[in-house]
Amino acid sequence: MSDAVAHAAIERIFREEYGRVVASLVRRFGDIDVAEEAAGEALLVALERWPVDGTPPNPGGWLTTTAARKGIDRIRREQQRDAKHQASLMLNSNFWGDDTPHEPTGVVDDDRLRLVFTCCHPALAPEARVALTLRLLGGLTVAEIAQAFLVPETTMAQRITRAKAKIKAANIPYRVPDEADLQERVAAVMAVIYLVFNEGYLSSSAEHSVREELTAEAIRLGRVLRSLLPDVPEVAGLLALMLLTESRRTSRFADGELVPLPDQDRGGWDRALIAEGHALVRECLAIGRAGHYQLLAAINAVHTDAPTLAATDWEQVAALYDQLYAVTPSPIVALNRAVAIAELDGPEVALAEVDRLPELQPGLTSYHAWHVTRAELLRRLGRSAEARAAYDAAIAATDNAAERAYLTRRRNQLAG
Amino acid sequence: MTEYLLAVNGNLDEDAADTRTMEDYQPVFEAVAQFNQNLRAEGAWVFAGGLLPVETTTTVDNTGSAPVVTDGPFVESKEYLGGFWVIEAPDLDAALEWAKEGSQACGGRVEVRPFQGEADDAAQRAGTAATADIAG
After folding, report:
1. Is the pTM of this model over 0.90?
2. Bridge-partner residues for B49, per DSSP?
3. Using the beta-carbon criterion (under 8 Å), do A33 and B122 form an inter-chain contact?
4. Which residue has the higher pLDDT, A18 or A90?
5. Domains identified in chain B and CATH numbers
């Protein structure tokens, strides 16, 4: 194995273990910077030793132990400089020789849970929450996060540095919130994970491999959250939603053009992801405490359950959107409900409903999906001139190249 | 433990639109008194005070060759500091809980801001955290 290959393999392991290692160190040292620096030093040692000694049987445990020693070394050096703090360092001898194995469950994972609540704390700006979560739990580099969100690296570095400084200065705790706050705080964590997923999913294209990595990262974080909070059905719902959406990803593009659900090659859907997603949805249904993510997952389950478009259970889809509207009364949900209504009661009924929606929220008329929905319904009603105008409005309202290509072609196919 | 400032900001436009009388404010005074009581009972109280209207401000600037004393605040703004609490809390979550209670009591928005600590460096905290880790 060449040095480059060996290094790439070590760096991959480091990235996979990063969240666990850093979370454990943050608990021990109470400081993110100390934890990150110690983890970085452990990587350097690994790059030096593993190619010679071989990869240890438990690389995560090795990294954590090595990093902990590095962290303690650093604290010792600093405290020797500052005699005033000597007394406060009363490290137990067990800790110095800490060779406890790195366990995949239990306390170690609780560390990650603590840290994700810190990263997604409401006192941090939403974009900082996303960046910190990807950095500390996902092990992505600042450069990668910057690239994924299409901002300069210095901007992203500053965003992360500021957030870490605030955590320290304002004393944001590394703690799983109390029962009273848990639901609200879990919602904030889920929002971050879903945002990461959508950032990767909605803008994924061939030239942005890091963006595709975001969907994988979001799913991985979703799995972690699910394993840590197995009794929260919304967490299962979020994971199911991401899996079922991800299952259709490769069918969503053809030759740089967006392929909408009705035209997708269902043979190209990932059956393993679908099976896993369906199992989670069934689990949620059995619990019977429906929520936003669970309902979205259930709708995706109905779609992915149909072998053909014609076989879709639209009644079920419309009923689920009704429930979703009760939980999240957004015009976007109403818009999607109208699509299901078109399949059930015909395009005329659906169009009337779609045209009523801007009364609820005028902003909808600048949203491309509203125009697309109108255009498709008008097309089916044979009202070509109006459909063309609606396609034009939709094209004007989107920046996504694949979507524009698709809409332009649809418009040009119109008769008359 | 960290000390936090819970600052209550007033707004001149909102004040102008406020038609409430002193009597109407009685429940607010009572709620704030109760909140202060709670802070003391829980050992979170450090200091607190309500400020007189912003027109009573005098600005002193002794950064130049001679001191300059002027009427009014240094920054002309619609927003002004109306009053504050200084509290001590184990972490931001605890401080935010107090802020929620304080905001409800005084009927105003509350800004939460940490004070500079004396020995607030990573090394000291790390030492304490590692010790606590072993103790727990």
Report:
1. no
2. B84
3. yes
4. A18
5. 2-129 (3.30.70.1060)
- Find the CATH number of the domain harbouring A73: 1.10.1740
ipTM score: 0.78
As given in the structure block, the two tokens for residue B85 are 């609490």
The answer as to whether A51 is a domain residue is yes
Output the CA torsion sign for A265, A269, A271, A277: negative
- Distance, CA of A222 to CA of A111 (rounded, Å): 16
The CATH number linked to A373 is 1.25.40
**Which residues constitute the domain of residue A40?**
3-91
Angle, alpha carbons A120-B92-A220 (nearest 5°)? 20
In a domain, A115, yes or no: no
Beta strands in A243-380 (DSSP E): 253-254, 257-258
Return the SS3 of B87: strand
Q: For residue range A215-271, list pLDDT tens digits in order.
A: 888 998 899 889 888 889 999 999 999 999 999 988 888 877 778 888 899 999 999
H helix runs in A203-230, sequence order = 209-228
The tally of domains found in chain A comes to 2
Nearest to B129 among A30, A92, A94 (CB): A30
What is the average pLDDT score of chain A? 87
**Tens digit of pLDDT per residue, chain B (136 long)?**
999 999 999 888 888 888 888 888 899 999 999 999 999 999 999 999 999 988 899 999 999 999 999 998 988 888 899 999 999 999 999 999 999 999 999 999 999 999 997 655 544 555 454 444 443 3
Domain assignment present for A17: yes
For residue A141, is it within any domain?
Answer: no
- Chosen for mutation from B120, B124, B128, B131 (greatest number of chain A CBs closer than 10 Å) is B124
Contacts of B92 in chain A (CB under 8 A): 121, 123, 170-173
- The alpha-carbon gap from B55 to the nearest alpha carbon of chain A, in Å, equals 32
